C-alpha cells in the first residue's frame, strides 16, 4: 500500500531529501520527497510492502546530520511513479 509520511525534527538543511532519494532508489521504492514551509519533510512511498517498511525504518534515523523526532504515517493512493524524485 502506498504510504504518505510527514517527518518532524531537524530534517531540513541536513541533506535529508538527497539522502532519501538515494536510499529509496537503492531499496526499489518509488515516489517523491519535498520540504514543507513548516520545517517538516513530506514523502510519498510506493513499492512492495517490505521495501516501504524498510524505507520507513531508515527514515527514522535519516542522514547523519538529521534528527528525526517523529513520523506521521498514513495510507495513500497510488500515483504510479517509475522512480523516486526530489521535489
What characteristics describe this protein?
87 residues; alpha+beta; 2 helices; globular
Task: Walk me through this protein's architecture.
Strand 2 (30-35) and strand 3 form a beta hairpin. The protein has two helices and five strands. Strands 4-1-3-2-5 form a five-stranded mixed beta sheet, covered by helices on one side. The chain is globular and about 30 Å long. It has helices at residues 16-27, 49-59; strands spanning 3-10, 30-35, 41-46, 67-75, 84-86. It has 87 residues and is of the alpha+beta class. Helix 1 packs antiparallel against helix 2 (49-59).
What is the SS-derived class?
alpha+beta
- Lateral strand order in the biggest sheet: 4-1-3-2-5
Q: Biggest sheet: strands, sense, closure?
A: 5 strands, mixed
Helix content: 25-40%
Shape: globular
Distance between the termini: 21 Å
Query: What amount of the residues lies in strands?
Result: 35-45%
Mean pLDDT figure? 97
According to DSSP, the number of beta strands is: 5
- Oligomer class: single chain
Work out the helix count.
2
Taking Cα atoms only, what radius of gyration do you get, to the nearest Å?
11 Å
- Parts with pLDDT < 50 across at least 5 consecutive residues: none
* Element pattern in H and E: EHEEHEE
Amino acid at each position: 500500500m502506498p504510504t504518505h509520511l510527514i517527518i518532524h525534527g531537524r530534517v531540513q538543511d541536513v541533506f535529508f531529501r538527497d539522502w532519501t532519494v538515494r536510499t529509496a532508489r537503492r531499496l526499489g521504492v518509488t515516489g517523491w520527497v519535498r520540504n514543507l514551509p513548516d520545517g517538516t519533510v513530506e514523502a510519498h512511498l510506493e513499492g512492495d510492502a517490505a521495501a516501504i517498511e524498510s524505507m520507513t525504518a531508515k527514515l527514522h534515523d535519516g542522514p547523519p546530520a538529521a534528527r528525526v523526532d517523529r513520523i506521521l504515517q498514513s495510507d495513500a493512493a497510488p500515483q504510479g511513479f517509475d522512480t523516486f524524485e526530489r521535489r
